Structure formats: C-alpha cells, structure tokens
Amino acid sequence: MQTLKILFILFIGLVPSLVNAAQPTCHSSSGGYCSYTGKVQRIYINSGNLILLYFDTPLPSSAPASIGLNITRSGVGAAALRVESNPDFAKLFYSTALAAQASNRDITIQMRGITSGYLTIDRIWLAAAE
Fold this sequence. Notes:
This protein has 3 helices and 7 strands, in the order H-E-E-E-E-H-E-H-E-E.
C-alpha cells in the first residue's frame, strides 16, 4: 500500500510537466514558419550575442525540413536570435522570456529562417497567468 501511495505521488508530480510539454510544429502557410507554445525550459545568451531559447520538447529536424528550413542543430530543442539583427527586439524578447520563466507562464514564439544552425525567433507572445 505504501508503494502505491509513493507511485501515485510521483505520478501527480509528473502530470503538470507532461501537460505543459509541447513539441514545436512547422507550417507551410505564410511563407513557411515554425511555432512553439509552452514553457521556457532554459534561456541563454553568450558573448557572441546569440540568444538561445530551449523548448520543453525538442523539434525533430524533419519538421523544419518539410518547409525548406534545414537546421543543423537538430535535436537540441532550441531556437536562436542574434542580438545585433534587431537589438530592440532582442532586449524585449529576452525580458519577455525571462518573465515567462520566472512566472511559470507559457509563451508562444514563431520562427522563420536559420541563425547559427537554429531556427530564428521572430516574435513572442506571453500567455496570461492561470
């Protein structure tokens, strides 16, 4: 009986993370783009001014390839934004992603093109708090 209780508690603890996990998808409409809705797993910026946002669930390389985007960083589950490509947007993007991560809220991002082998982030939405 004790083992059953422990398994139940573990299951309940895993359900929210399974519900939030969302695999990015790609669409051929509007010139072709990929999108992701879910949690900010990790966000990273390096000294080369490259921001990486990691997804809950990796994007299979076949999805962007289906719309003509051949990423070389497949399987890592991240998209990129080069700061100097649009510094104002990059600052707003980074702060919005950090706010989402800090408040455990979902974001939606769209990606078009390739940056350093990753899909290029070009917009972000922040979901309302639940």
